[in-house]
Structures are given as C-alpha cells and as structure tokens.
Design brief:
Elements (H helix, E strand, L loop, with lengths): L9 H52 L5 E5 L2 E8 L5 E7 L6 E6 L3
Antiparallel strand pairs: 1-2, 2-3, 3-4
Length: 108
C-alpha cells in the first residue's frame, strides 16, 4: 500500500461505478415491466369495486340500471346482461390499454 493513500483511486472508482450501472441496467427494465403490470391490476381492482357497488345497489333497490363513471382517467361502465339480473359486467378502457371486462353472474 501507498503511504499517503487517503481514498480510492480513479480506476477503482470507475470499476465500482460501472458495476453499479450494470446492476441498475439489469433491474430497471424489470421494474418498468412490474410497474406496468401493477397499473393494470389497479384498473381491474377499481372495476371490481365498481361492480360490487353496482350489484349491492341493485340488490337493495331491485333496480338493474346501467351506469358509468370516470375514475383517474379510466371510464368504467356497468352493464346488466341477460334480462337485467342474470349477469353484471364492468367494461373499462384507457387509451394505452385495450378494452377489458369483469363480469359476475347470479349463479356464481
């Protein structure tokens, strides 16, 4: 070792920095993909909440009415199929994702 060594040399610093960049380069695409999947699951959870609220309201009031709402830039539409009270579906769509649907039938 050198007598007056008070830190890392430039080559040691560059090697350590390049190792950090390589590790970050491997994990950043994974994190981006994970975040997009999480966003899709959040949309589905909101659709399920809207479906639950609509079904509960219909059970209490005996009125099977289609309605919609916009929450955080996503349009959710509740649709009653099969003569009113057989199946309820929530359709939701955002610009960057395709149309999706969550349904529940009275037989389930």
């Amino acid at each position: 070792m050198y007598k007056n060594s008070k830190g890392f040399s430039l080559p040691e610093t560059l090697v350590a920095f390049s190792c950090i960049l390589m590790i970050a380069g491997m994990f950043i695409p994974f994190l981006i993909h994970y975040a997009s999947q999480l966003k899709g699951l959040q949309y589905e959870v909101e659709a399920l909440k809207f479906l639950e609220e609509g079904v509960e309201k219909a059970i209490v009031s005996h009125e099977y009415v289609d309605h919609s709402r916009i929450y955080r830039g996503v349009r959710y539409e509740l649709d009653w199929k099969g003569g009113g009270n057989e199946e309820a579906c929530v359709h939701y769509q955002k610009r960057d994702i395709g149309p999706n649907e969550v349904c529940i039938s009275m037989g389930e």
